[in-house]
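User: Sequence in, structure out. Go.
Assistant: Echoing your sequence, followed by the structure tokens.
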Amino acid sequence: MLPEHPFAGTPTAAPQGMPQSIEVVAPRTSFAPALMERMYRSRGTLVAPVIVAAAVTAWRSHARMIDVGIGSGVFLLGWAGRMWSQRHLGYRLRSRRMRLTTCGPYRWVRNPVYIANTLVVTGTTLMTGAYWLAAAAALLCGVVYSLAVRHEEAALGQWYGATHLAFVVDTPRWIPSRPSSRRRPCCTGARSWMHVALAEWHVPLVLVPVAIPLVLR
């Protein structure tokens, strides 16, 4: 539903002493525990049921305008977070020969896309006025993404070594904090906002199964 890739797109050169004809690629993730890898690969599917539940609830409930407004605001905040992350991440690039992303929102927190996704899903469910469902959606996202990120970070540690370790030490996993002086002060290679908008246009489609019954009722 909401695909994302944890890496940015700047190719790296072959290590010193290695023949230049050999292509340097990231190692496979077979080292990760099977459950964590499965959670990572299925994270969108695992979160999708709460959107289905929200659509069903929308047909049965009489959401107030304030609920729709609050839910829309949370959704927009999450969408904006995804676009900010995408501007620096470029995760739809296919190659894995990339640099570690430590700029943009990644200066403040290690997993801004997952935080943004949680806001998108929770905001969508809030529009129905079912606060219990919104709480369940946030909890589900928290569980799924917490397990998925362990697989991601294991892979990043293998690929980037000491660079990733320094990133982990300096930057919190979930709770954003003010960047320290050791964090990268500026970003290079950020994508244009137009490019980002074209990459993220699909996100509002998450609202469709919930918005239709709210409008028709």
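User: And one key feature?
Assistant: The mean pLDDT is 80.
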